[in-house]
Amino acid sequence: MRAADALPAQFNAAQWFVGRHVAQGNGDRIALLSDGEQLTYAQLDDAVRRFAAALEAQGVHRGERVAIALPDSRAWSVAFWGALAAGAVAVPLNTLLTPDDYRAILADCDARLAIADPAIVDGAAVAPPGCIIWDAAHLLEQVECTTPRADYQQTHRDSFAFFLYSSGTTGEPKGVVHLHHDPWICARTYGERVLGVRPGDRAFSIAKLFFAYGLGNAQYFPMDAGAACILFAGRPTPPAVFEQVARHRPTLFFGVPTAYAQMLAAMDAGAEADFSSVRACVSAGESLPAPIFERWKERTGLEILDGIGSTEICHIFLTNEFGACRAGSSGKPVPGYRVRIVDEEGHDVEGEDIGDLLVEGDSTMALYWNKHERTKAVLEGSWIRTGDKYRRDADGYYWHAGRSDDMLKVGGIWVSPVEVEAALTAHEAVLECAVVGREDRDGLIKPHAYVVLKSPKQAPTESEFQHFVKERLAPYKYPRWVTIVDGLPKTATGKIQRFQLRERSRA
Predict the structure, then answer these.
(1) Separation in Å, CA 426 to CA 128, 225, 421, 452
(2) How far is CA 62 from CA 83, 89, 187, 216, in A?
(3) pLDDT in tens, 265-299
(4) Which percentage of the chain shows pLDDT scores above 70?
(5) What is the pLDDT of residues 174-198, one digit of tens each?
(6) CA 187, CA 193: separation in Å to the nearest integer?
(7) How far apart, in whole angstroms, are the C-alpha atoms of residue 56 and residue 58?
(8) Considering Cα of 212, then 189, then 253, then 321, what sign does the dihedral take?
(9) Residues 488 and 447: beta-carbon distance below 8 Å
(10) CB 437, CB 408: distance < 8 Å
(11) What pLDDT sits at residue 494?
């Protein structure tokens, strides 16, 4: 029996995470907190049902896609849960993409309606034919003037609920399809059984809502318990994060290793930070180096519950737990999930041998949208291949040993070396190049570019190359180091030997 079978067949995630609290008499609890405003569950429920009615009035039918390119805000939450309430499919979009990225994703998901902040992207310039374009102001106007839907659409627990686009292991955006029961599974496993989220909690996430990690952290984990979500639209720089923590006093703090390293550096430089309200710190997105764990605990008195999740699983499936953290490890399986480490033949490895990580859990994606062959490549019955190499120690803790491919995770976001290489190669001075991962002083992976010039006499500076890439790609993808070389190591067939460059970067 699946865990999701504990739910009734007719199940709408928006009704569970939003409307249920009103029906149970808890509508006066705070649902959303952001700069200058707060919304109760009753107010959010009303806005969600109004937006659902507005979608239907625009001709958006059940199962059609509603794309969301907004900063974390009240409008984002209303759009996401309102789409589900109408039986439509929400498609949150990364706010750091290029116009070409948005154009490709909106076409791939065949968006019926897109809500886009003009500061993020010109929706009309990237939308496919027939796609309705709204901005946040129009969304809120529609909410104000539309009579709310009487109830929530009676979707099935296995109906499509939302797509999350991930570059994953190929560098090509893939629409990861999740069902209405998936966030309920994550909330009842990691949220309830690991974090013990309760009504009085306030959750603040550095990871934004368009990430699978951020969506759980600052929406459905707290909402499952009737707790409060702290939403912050700005860049999570250390000063901004410290100010938000001081203002809203979160009890649950969700970060990524890069952010923890940056905050520690700011504290070392004299910045004041008060985390006394926080009872749990969480990290995911990339492996947390042990020195960061130790320094954070020394500074704040708080252990960081490091774990690993994926867009395909919806959230964290391996985690450290309160009082049982092992610095540098990804912890143990979250209750409700099973994990295997297998060799190249698919057999379980013995002892502490390194192998490919497979996961089984009821929040696993249904499929990659429009990518049947790619779906078949990662799903093996009820198991899914994560693309990670792992080992398990004698105490049952799992240790990350690298990626099964050449993709990089920078600040918790996938970066394709091929994409960065393509941007660099567009420079008139570049003959060829290769990009690999290199650890910075905090032990976090960043892109390192090796460049062969057309002429040694034309040698742009490192900063010029970095600026060139930033103009063409999302800013976080630029190479932190650029090394000029005479040639790239290659096989007899001309393939670049990246492992040699990785070894050089480690030297």
Answers:
(1) 28, 50, 9, 13
(2) 9, 8, 25, 24
(3) 999 999 999 999 999 999 998 888 898 999 999 99
(4) 98
(5) 999 999 999 999 999 999 999 999 9
(6) 9
(7) 5
(8) negative
(9) no
(10) yes
(11) 62
Cβ atoms of 337 and 360 within 8 Å: the answer is yes
Q: Pick left, alpha or beta for residue 207 (phi over 0 → left; psi -120 to 50 → alpha; otherwise beta).
A: beta
Cβ atoms within 10 A of the Cβ of 5, count?
11
Q: Cα–Cα distance between 272 and 246 in angstroms, integer?
A: 10
Buried b / exposed e along 328-364 (16+ C-beta atoms within 10 A): bbbbbbbebbebbbbeeeeeebeeeebbbbbbbbbbb
Q: Count of residues for the chain?
A: 507
Domain ranges of the chain: 12-155, 416-506
Check: CB of residue 250 under 8 Å from CB of residue 200. Answer: no
pLDDT digits (tens, 9 = 90+) for 88-135: 999 999 998 989 999 999 999 999 999 999 999 999 999 999 999 999
What pTM was estimated for this model as a whole? Answer: 0.87
pLDDT tens digits for 59-79?
Answer: 999 999 999 999 999 999 999
**CA pair distance 295, 289, nearest whole angstrom:** 10
β pairing state of 367-369 and 332-333: unpaired
Can you list the alpha helix ranges (DSSP code H) found in 154-270? 181-186, 212-215, 221-225, 238-248, 257-268
Copy the structure tokens of residue 138. Answer: 């129009």
- In this prediction, residues 419-423 reach a mean pLDDT of 87
Strands (E), 326-377: 332-333, 338-342, 355-360, 367-369
Which helix (H) or strand (E) segment is 211 a member of? none
CB 230 within 8 A of CB 33: yes
Q: Was domain 416-506 assigned CATH 3.90.25.10?
A: no
Strand 111-116 versus strand 332-333 pairing type: unpaired
- Cβ proximity of 463 and 413 under 8 Å: no
Task: For residues 424 and 433, give the distance between their C-alpha atoms in angstroms, rounded to a whole number.
Answer: 7
Q: Are 223 and 183 in contact (CB under 8 A)?
A: no
Q: Hey, how many other C-beta atoms are within 10 angstroms of the C-beta on 373?
A: 7
- The reply to whether domains 12-155 and 416-506 share a CATH topology is no
**Structurally, what CATH architecture does the domain formed by 12-155 represent?**
3-Layer(aba) Sandwich (3.40)
